[in-house]
Design goal:
Distance between the termini: 54 Å
Helix content: 55-70%
CATH topology of the largest domain: Neutral Protease, domain 2
Number of helices: 11
């Protein structure tokens, strides 16, 4: 009898976890399984972004504010054109691009799903120029385009489904209620996009896409190396290993960016022309195995 119940559990778990849709990340071609729709995620992120902006203080520096919006909109236009040219025009409706500069001395920037971006004033002394700012915004836009938040949410949901199904079946075969309690606790947690910490693989993927998006928009992707060197100097990071971090080490990040640079330069040398995915697919497939990836943040 217990064997039958255990088999039933396995079938139920497979069905629940197998539900959803499969999406392909632009540029890298990585496949991802999602349990939440773009529309659902955009609705949640829009609410959270609006709540944050109610309490945030916008920068009073008109020149810097204009620069953030100018660079952001230029990147958004390039990304939108790329999606439309590569059979992903349907995705464009789920981006409601916003670029705001707020008064905060942290060296940070973040993006909620749908392209809702916030840049802190403390980041600008490190970026120093528009091209380096484009590297940062390209990275943040990449998190949205690659649906990293939806992927994180889907992973959590799969884990919760597993706990719920497991606790139900475990109870039937004589196991205690601990798993059920854990599952209920997990369900009670609220998802906060702004504080979401992506995995190293997501961070590396955002680095990869970010320099390409910057190149698409006409910014020299090669400035990414010097920018990350400045970031390393600014933070005084002594991180030597990726093992205990959800971000790659500075050395790893710079090495990976240098490996992706030939691909990014092809977009840059295209003088802003939209390049179809097939023209760079070989390089992208080669680099997929290297994905390891900022939420831009001073450590």
């Amino acid at each position: 009898m217990r064997q039958i119940k255990w088999m039933l559990f396995c079938v139920m778990a497979a069905v629940m976890i197998g539900c959803g849709t499969t999406k392909t990340v632009p540029i890298t071609g990585r496949q991802q399984s999602l349990l939440v729709s773009d529309g659902e995620v955009l609705s949640l992120s829009t609410q959270q972004y609006q709540e944050f902006m109610k309490s945030a203080k916008l920068s009073t520096n008109s020149a810097n504010t204009a620069m953030v919006k100018r660079v952001g909109e230029r990147l958004a236009t390039a990304v939108t054109n790329y999606l439309k040219a590569n059979g992903m025009a349907a995705d464009v409706q789920y981006y409601k691009w916003q670029f705001n500069l707020v008064q905060n001395n942290q060296v940070n920037a973040w993006c909620m799903p749908g392209g809702l971006i916030c840049v802190y004033e403390g980041l600008l002394p490190v970026t120093q120029d528009e091209a380096s700012l484009a590297i940062v915004l390209g990275h943040e836009i990449a998190h949205a385009v690659a649906r990293h938040s939806a992927e994180q949410m889907s992973t959590q949901m799969k884990q919760q489904y597993g706990l719920q199904i497991g606790s139900a079946v475990a109870g039937a075969i004589g196991v205690g209620s601990t798993a059920q309690s854990i599952g209920q606790w997990a369900l009670s947690q609220q998802f906060n996009f702004k504080n979401l910490k992506y995995s190293r693989s997501h961070e590396s993927e955002a680095d990869h896409l970010g320099i390409i998006f910057a190149a698409m928009a006409g910014y020299d992707p090669q400035v990414a190396v010097s920018f990350w060197q400045r970031m390393a100097a600014h933070t005084g990071s002594s991180q030597k290993s990726d093992l205990y971090s959800d971000h790659p080490s500075d050395a790893t990040r710079i090495k990976q960016i240098q490996e992706w640079m030939p691909e990014a330069l092809r977009y840059y040398k295209g003088n802003g022309k939209t390049i179809k995915a097939s023209q760079t697919s070989k390089t992208s497939k080669t680099n997929q195995s290297n994905l390891k990836t900022i939420h831009i943040k001073s450590k």
